[in-house]
Design goal:
- The protein is mainly alpha-helical.
- 62% of the residues lie in helices and 11% in strands.
- It has a three-stranded antiparallel sheet.
- The radius of gyration is 24 Å and the shape is globular.
Length: 176
């Protein structure tokens, strides 16, 4: 019986499953997004996110080398570990978690398996720009509201002047 066993075995023995997840993680770090089955993507998320978190916890030189060794023991690929620590880590430094995104892609025609794309969140330019601009106003504190109120009033007085100039530039205004 498997009561309380929440790990998805993916129809493989332990060594085969670890090799599969390691290879998928290397490809995800290298290419920033991969397409696989939904079950593998969900299993990969739980495998990769702790490794990405390890790249952030680097204060001393000993910790840096220790975390490199720990991540290398999971990935066994020097290029992927280097990419993770040099390219991925600086981009996700401010993010508290949730480094990957899974997007469902429908079914695969051959075997009806559900496909999904798993990607590193900060490397998608389409979603990344809107999220970054939306997240900036949420960082304001109560103290900054007092200073923000005069700025908003100044912007409100400038706004009609901008719209007046815009109406002068219309073809109807040019015809008169």
């Amino acid at each position: 019986m498997r009561h309380g066993d929440k790990q998805n075995n993916l129809g493989r023995k332990k060594a085969h499953r670890e090799a599969l997840l390691s290879n998928l993680a290397i490809q995800l770090i290298t290419h920033k997004r991969i397409v696989t089955t939904l079950a593998k993507a969900k299993a990969l998320r739980t495998y990769v996110e702790p490794l990405v978190t390890k790249t952030k916890k680097t204060a001393t030189k000993e910790e840096i080398s220790h975390n490199h060794r720990v991540v290398f023991s999971y990935l066994n690929d020097k290029a992927a570990v280097k990419e993770l620590f040099t390219v991925v880590a600086p981009k996700i430094a401010a993010r508290p978690g949730g480094y990957t995104r899974i997007i469902k892609l429908g079914i695969r025609p051959g075997d009806n398996a559900e496909k999904a794309m798993i990607e590193l969140v900060d490397f998608n330019e389409i979603y990344g720009n809107s999220i970054a601009t939306a997240a900036e106003p949420a960082k304001k504190t109560r103290r900054s509201k007092a200073t923000a109120a005069p700025k908003k009033a100044a912007e409100a007085t400038e706004a009609p002047a901008v719209t007046d100039e815009a109406t002068d530039a219309t073809p109807e205004a040019a015809a008169e």
